[in-house]
Amino acid sequence: MLTLSVISTVSTVITGLTTTLKFAKTAMLGLNLAMRANPIELWNKLGFLKGAVIAMLGPFGQIVVAGIAIYKKFDTIKSKAGDMVNSVVIFGITILKIGLNVMKDLWLLMERIFCWYLKKLS
């Protein structure tokens, strides 16, 4: 009787373990499917069909393509933007220097006119 009870318990444990392993297998298959459905990986595997997919997506496809291009070239874009900011700052400083020189020249001109006018009055 004790042997039958032990065998029954072991059988129940093995059945539970088998059910658990089936659930784990199903979960693993689901995970594998999710990993294979990774959009970046699928996009890389499309090859020459990328153009057809983009055409089917219409304007949204063009936005996706632009986003991918920006992502791939972001380092270049970042460095060029930094260069552009530096150029704008240098341009602004140059304009400021020119403006200050013009103001100085106008001040000297006004000073000459004022001195000339004072000489005429005296």
Layout of helices and strands:
Elements: H1 2-36, H2 39-46, H3 50-57, H4 59-72, H5 74-121
Helix pairs in contact: 3-4
Which labels suit this protein?
about 120 residues; mainly alpha; 5 helices; about 95% helix
Count of DSSP strands: 0
Percent helix, as a range, is over 70%
Count up the helices.
5
Distance between the termini: 139 Å
The secondary-structure class comes to: mainly alpha
Element order, helices and strands? HHHHH
Uncertain residue segments = none
Radius of gyration of CA atoms, rounded to a whole number: 39 Å
**What gross morphology would you assign?**
rod-shaped
Question: What share of residues are in beta strands?
Answer: under 5%
Q: What does the average pLDDT come to?
A: 81
Describe what this molecule looks like in 3D:
The chain has helices at residues 2-36, 39-46, 50-57, 59-72, 74-121. It is mostly helical and 122 residues long. Helix 3 (50-57) crosses helix 4 (59-72).
Short description:
With 122 residues, the chain is mainly alpha-helical. It contains five helices and no strands. α3 crosses α4 (59-72).
